[in-house]
Write a structure and sequence with these properties.
Elements lengths: L7 H5 L17 E8 L5 E8 L10 E5 L2 E6 L4 E6 L5 E10 L4 E7 L1
């Protein structure tokens, strides 16, 4: 296997190459986290993220596990990667997108 380093000019010629995504070149969306209770009185954490320009939830990736939440929209450069105030059950996590308010809402159950 031969590995060759490409110059920046050569990289621009390759259409499939994308800019690397890191926290340094991403914007943390405005957000709020708060506790609430569902209809069965089970505690849940609600996370709301304001992301203008996003039209469809398909543009957003959501990964919740145990005590961490990652919300990412590479198309518009949004990223939230943070620890949660308490553990959640990732199998019960629900994400919806409200087009009118341009907010993604996550329900994270304990």
């Amino acid at each position: 296997v031969l590995i060759e380093e490409l110059s920046p000019t050569e990289l621009k010629k390759i259409p499939s190459m994308r800019k690397s995504v890191s926290k340094d070149n991403m914007i943390e969306p405005e957000h709020r986290l708060f506790n609430d209770y569902d209809k069965d009185n089970k505690k849940m954490l609600i996370a709301e993220f304001y992301m203008p320009n996003v039209i469809d939830i398909k543009e957003i990736s959501v990964d919740a596990n145990d005590d961490r939440l990652l919300i990412e929209c590479r198309k518009y450069g949004y990223m939230f990667d943070g620890f949660l105030p308490h553990k959640v059950d990732e199998k019960k996590t629900i994400a919806e997108y409200d087009n009118e308010r341009m907010v993604i809402i996550n329900w994270l159950f304990s």
